Structure formats: structure tokens, C-alpha cells
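Structure first, sequence second, as always.
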């Protein structure tokens, strides 16, 4: 059977093909001319702006200030922290020529900004009175990518990076957890993702960090996606860049620093958490249009319904609801319904002559759960702003519940190797592990699953490693999963 050219590959047939169909057909992105680059189209960029505004509010409300640092970093800066340069070397873009001449010292395009911000922190901090220093930057970064995927792995992406300096390890640790906390709030409250906050094992830590914390989100194919990370650097970067302060008693001390980031990958997480075979499904908090009105009718009738739709849209916008009237004259109502379903708009209203005469509009929700799609429902135009505001709140909560149920249904506590392989084939396994890198490598080679995190909420537990039987490390079960 020939597939409608506007439809998408079913998720069950090929999840990765489904993902590609959705990102392009929903007009979120286009491919850039350079391999691994991505053009974010207006509809996709609006989602990012909404996410950015939400997260920026939380960052500022906790006392951080935004600043901007240069894109180009002297190569020597990157080399000062040994683990940092080792971790990033394979992904670096280096500028060797400028102004038609070879540069004396090559410049690196930032893959992250610890080094250049560390240099400035050393200059700006002298006394304990200057601490804590709480900075955040919204920027693009570049990391060379051989196997690009839109939003998930592209050579250039957008993010925010928080960088802070503190007097004590305890203060810096508290900051690391504060940032993880607002990422968790953005992920669950705003993006309606199903996440597990936890700590990375040593093999999965950020290059140069003492401790790395993460949010792991479950995608609809059972894989894990890292939705945000927060790093406690100890004094590693302070020692490399001379970030010191004079204490109250007059001694010179090294600062303790942190960094934390959330990126445009979050849009990939949204797509793969909520989307279905009709396309994208957006949580109202991040939907460019929360409601789309489709006026229906021919001739004089179309003028009347369009005018009523425009008036209704103005009332909805005044009530704070992002509303669009689809007045494309050349497109049929059926085309428009499919198009907005593909683009994930939470609520659609149809307004035809008969609805107008009855003082109502026909409402359809993009998705319902746990019951399947409910029938269209007539709602009174008079009460539309209040009714739709309540519908959008319910839709947001429904998506979060659906994602959490899916995560819980696909997370299995396992105590044998066959149980482990069965669990990671379709979701996440909670397992005890010995912590040896060679053992983790073996697990990955056989199943493609890796340790995603040690969940913060996990109960203390000891026992044999799921793979080799040696005593477990970490004192808790780990989440193992295939990951993006
Ligand atoms: Zn083992």
C-alpha cells in the first residue's frame, strides 16, 4: 500500500526513521550545508525559545547572572586541565588561519567554556567576599560529530552553561544539586518528560569533573537520553587556572567550582517521549501554538466563520493562550487537521457555520490517555478561554503521567543475565554491578547497554555483579540502558 507522502513511518516499524520523518515534516529543522550541521526552522526555534525562557527564569531566580564569553579560546587554555583536554581533543574544531595568515597560536572553537571562564574567574575573585560567583551563559558550542542526528548529535548546538565558584566543597556540592533540581523541574513540569536524577559512574563523568550528576529520560523506544548534567569540579579547574581567594583568616585558598548544562537535545527528548504515528505531540508549556482554529465553510459562510475564528483567537490570546487561525485558502480542512496533528498542536477547534449558529466550536485533543482518542466535543464560545485554559492544564498533566507510566512499565529490577538482556532490549534494567571498566565494556559489547546513572532515590543494596558475579560497587543498583 502506498503511504500518504505526509504520513510518517510507524514507530513500531523503524523508530529512527519515524524520528527523521517527524523532525523534517513538522518543519522543526533542515540539514545545513556542512556535514553535521542543523538549521533550526522557526517552528523548532520557538520551542527552544519557550524552553529557554522557562529555564532562564529559574536560573535567575536562584541568584545567577547571565554573561557572554568569546567563541574563540586560545589552544593553551584547553591544555591546562589534563583530563579536560584528553576528553575533548577528538571533538575540537581548531582555527589555524585568520586574516590570510597562519596564527602563532591556534584557537579552539569552544566545545564548552570552563577554561575561558576559569581564566576570568581567577581575575575577578580575590576575597571570600567575592564568593559565591554565580554565572550563566547562553551560547552555541561546537563538537565534531561523525554520526549526526538532528537535535541529538550535531556538530553545533545551542545550550546554557552555568559556571560557579565557591569557598567550600560543601557549597559547591549544594550548587551542583541545586542546578540538577531546576533541570528536573524543567524536564518534568515544563517538558513533561519521565526522568530519573542520578550520579554518573566514573567512566561516564565529564572530563575534569570529580562528580557528575545527570537526568536520564526514557524515550518511547526504551532508550535513555541524558536531559541535563551538573558537575562538581572540586578544585581541578581552580588549580589549573589559579582561581583563589583570601579567606576570612587571611590564608590563600583554592575555590571549588561547578558547571552545568542543558541543550537543544531537549527538543529531541520531547519528540521521542511524546510523539506517535501521527507525528509530534507537544506539551502545552512548550507548544508554539497551544490551540489552532480551523474555520470551515464556502463563500459567504467562510467569511463569517473566518471572522468569528479571528475574534475567538483574539479572546484566547488575551487569556494568555498561544492561538493560531489556519486561514490558508488553498488547503482543505482535512489537510489542515493532518498538518496540525503532525506538528503536535495540543488542541484543535473547528468552526463551521452550524457551530457558529449554535454558539459553539468543535474541540479535538491531539492525544488522550489512558483512554484512546475521545470524540470531538462541542464547547460554548462564550466560555472558551476558561475552558481551554483548563483543557491545556489537563493535557500537560496527562502527557507527564503517560510518560511516567511508560518509564515505570519499562524499568525492571533484574537479578540474572537473561533478565538483564531482556530488560535492556526494550527498556531499562536496575542491576547491581562491580564497577570494573572491563566488565562494563563487556556488557556494552554484548547488549549495547551502558550504565546511565546511580539513581539518587535508590535504596542501599549489595550483591553479586549482574555480569561477572563479583561484589557490587556503588552500594546501590544502577540503571543500565541503550542510550542516545
Ligand atoms: Zn562485573
Amino acid at each position: 500500500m502506498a503511504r500518504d507522502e505526509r504520513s510518517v513511518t510507524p514507530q513500531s516499524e523503524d523508530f529512527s526513521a519515524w524520528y527523521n520523518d517527524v523532525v523534517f515534516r513538522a518543519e522543526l529543522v533542515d540539514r545545513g550545508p556542512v556535514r553535521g550541521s542543523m538549521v533550526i526552522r522557526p517552528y523548532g526555534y520557538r520551542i527552544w525559545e519557550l524552553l529557554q525562557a522557562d529555564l532562564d527564569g529559574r536560573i535567575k531566580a536562584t541568584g545567577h547572572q547571565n554573561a557572554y564569553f568569546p567563541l574563540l579560546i586560545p589552544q593553551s587554555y584547553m591544555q591546562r586541565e589534563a583530563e579536560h583536554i584528553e576528553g575533548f581533543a577528538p571533538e575540537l574544531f581548531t582555527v589555524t588561519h585568520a586574516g590570510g595568515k597562519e596564527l602563532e597560536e591556534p584557537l579552539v572553537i569552544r566545545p564548552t567554556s570552563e577554561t575561558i571562564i576559569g581564566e576570568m574567574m581567577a581575575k575577578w575573585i580575590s576575597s571570600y567576599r567575592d564568593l559565591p560567583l554565580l554565572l550563566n551563559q547562553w551560547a552555541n558550542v561546537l563538537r565534531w560529530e561523525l554520526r549526526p542526528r538532528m537535535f541529538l548529535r550535531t556538530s553545533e548546538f545551542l545550550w546554557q552553561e552555568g559556571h560557579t565558584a565557591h569557598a567550600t566543597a560543601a557549597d559547591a556540592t549544594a550548587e551542583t544539586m541545586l542546578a540538577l533540581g531546576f533541570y528536573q523541574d524543567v524536564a518534568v513540569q515544563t517538558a513533561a518528560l519521565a526522568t530519573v536524577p542520578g550520579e554518573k559512574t566514573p567512566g561516564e563523568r565529564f572530563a575534569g569533573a570529580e562528580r557528575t550528576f545527570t537526568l536520564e529520560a526514557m524515550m518511547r523506544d526504551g532508550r535513555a537520553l541524558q536531559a541535563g548534567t551538573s558537575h562538581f569540579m572540586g578544585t581541578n579547574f581552580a588549580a589549573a587556572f589559579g582561581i583563589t581567594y583570601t579567606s576570612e583568616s587571611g590564608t590563600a585558598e583554592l575555590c571549588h567550582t561547578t558547571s552545568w548544562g542543558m541543550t537543544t537535545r531537549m527538543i529531541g527528548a520531547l519528540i521521542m517521549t511524546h510523539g506517535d504515528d501521527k507525528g509530534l505531540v507537544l506539551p502545552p508549556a512548550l507548544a508554539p501554538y497551544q490551540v489552532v482554529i480551523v474555520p470551515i465553510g464556502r463563500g459567504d459562510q467562510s467569511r463569517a466563520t473566518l471572522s468569528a475564528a479571528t475574534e475567538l483567537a483574539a479572546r484566547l490570546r488575551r487569556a494568555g493562550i498561544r492561538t493560531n487561525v489556519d486561514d490558508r485558502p488553498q488547503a482543505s480542512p482535512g489537510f489542515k487537521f493532518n498538518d496540525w496533528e503532525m506538528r503536535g498542536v495540543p488542541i484543535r477547534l473547528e468552526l463551521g457555520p452550524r457551530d457558529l449558529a449554535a454558539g459553539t466550536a468543535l474541540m479535538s485533543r491531539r492525544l488522550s490517555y489512558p483512554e484512546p482518542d475521545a470524540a470531538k466535543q462541542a464547547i460554548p464560545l462564550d466560555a472558551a478561554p476558561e475552558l481551554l485554559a483548563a483543557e491545556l492544564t489537563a493535557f500537560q498533566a496527562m502527557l507527564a503521567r503517560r510518560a511516567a507510566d511508560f518509564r515505570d512499565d519499562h524499568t525492571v529490577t533484574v537479578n540474572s543475565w537473561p533478565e538483564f538482556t531482556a530488560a535492556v532490549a526494550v527498556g531499562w534494567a536496575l542491576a547491581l554491578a562491580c564497577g570494573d571498566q572491563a566488565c562494563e565494556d563487556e556488557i556494552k559489547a554484548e547488549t549495547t547497554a551502558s550504565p546511565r546513572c546511580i539513581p539518587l532515590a535508590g535504596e542501599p543494596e549489595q550483591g553479586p555483579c549482574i555480569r561477572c558475579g563479583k561484589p557490587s560497587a556503588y552500594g546501590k543498583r544502577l540503571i543500565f540502558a541503550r542510550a542516545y
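Margin note: The CA atoms of residues 296 and 332 lie 9 Å apart.
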